[in-house]
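worker-03 picked up job from queue 'complexes'. Input manifest follows; two sequence lines, order preserved.
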Amino acid sequence: MQDFGAAFSQAFALILSGDADLLEIIGLSLRVTFSAVVLACAIGLPLGAVLAVGRFPGRLAVVTVVNALMGLPPVVVGLGVYLLLSGAGPLGVLQLLYTPTAMIVAQTILVAPIIAALTRQVVEDLHGEYDELLRSMGARRGAVIATLLWDARYSLMTAALAGLGRALGEVGAIIVVGGNINHVTRVMTTTIALETSKGNLSLALGLGIILVGLSILVNGLVMGLRSSAARLAYA
Amino acid sequence: MPDAVSGSAAPREDAAAVDPAGIWPVALRDVRFAVGGKTLIDRLSLQLTPGVRSVVMGPNGAGKSLLLRLIAGLIEPTSGAITYAGRSGDAAARRRIAVVFQRPVLLRRSVAANLRHALATYGVPRGERARRLDDLLALGRLEDIAERPARVLSGGEQQRLSMVRALAAEPEMLLLDEPTASLDPQATAAIETLVGQAAAAGVKIVLVTHDRGQAQRLADEILFLHRGSLAERSDADAFFSRPNSAAAQAYLEGRLLL
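worker-03 finished. Artifact:
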């Protein structure tokens, strides 16, 4: 218990010191996470909207697959991306393995189905409300999707937050494709795993506190924005 | 296409002629609509032409709202045909028909943004949208609440917005499904004024209502539906003084149950 308390006090001292290595790790974590969430939104939002609005053969099967992909095991995704990007893989020529780009790719694959599945549900509900109006206006499919995504934007923030939560706390995929290389691909979660195994609990705890704090901060900011903006639009 | 906003277009004539570039006449031939084996519209034939304000009446469940949705192309008939100037319905024809629903469906945006969305959806050139927006806001007396979220408006304001949004399409036909069903007399009068302005601008009006007074104020003719069929089509004055069908007689006397 005493060691635990000492680890906590060392962790706070580390955070307050503004340690350069710590800042580098935090910076890379945020870069990888936010890049992956932005890319996953770019894929998941339109995909989810198309699945909500579109009527095509096999739609139900695609919806089922997308829903199932929400539970993708990160290590399996990491392995898949590893095989793609390794020297012998089809994309090996790009030499992306053990780079932040590979980590972003892996996290995007993990997060996109979450955003797509949640988007489909949100947009489908709104489509039920707007369908007759938009059809009576002669709105084309693209315009319908754009209208629904825009009007559901505050609800879709929750989908993006769910993706952010998954990406921020993820370790399995990025450690496989990133390798946890110091000053190159070391991020908060992989560092926590490494330092814990080494018995360096103060750094691991410090990073853990920052990770949880960041998660709460981002969620709080987005939810605050969502509620005030939604109130303005009475969404 | 009539200028519904300014009311400057001349009323239409030549009711029976086919307009090759337009939608007239709109014809329903032997239209049947059934759901789950139950026939809700039964072999209904009807021809709609411009210049006449048609009010659809009938008891609950008679098929009035379904008739509007069929005409608007929102649902497909189980059998029979609906044609617009002799052609089956396409997107171009449907864009000339606007619908006002009983419960206004408003986007989660401001009043002005709802109208901007409509103008963009109807393909109004960007350069004209600002002027058209101002015209529509003025027409609906919505200028002072243009930036308010549409969903916090009163029922009357919401329906006025819904009306002018429909008129943003500069439609040839306006289908109104009990637009004043839940409004107070003042809000009802405002909607009726808008309907009258649209009709004066040459827009064909097809309005569903249970309100006898409203029907008498607005109708040139009455389409009386009973059990999914067109039981009677009469001049409005004649319908209220000497209905032809026993069903209409019973309806006007408050004796008709579906």
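worker-03 released lock.
Residues 100-136 of chain A form the longest helix (37 residues).
Chain A touches chain B through 17 residues (CB under 8 Å).
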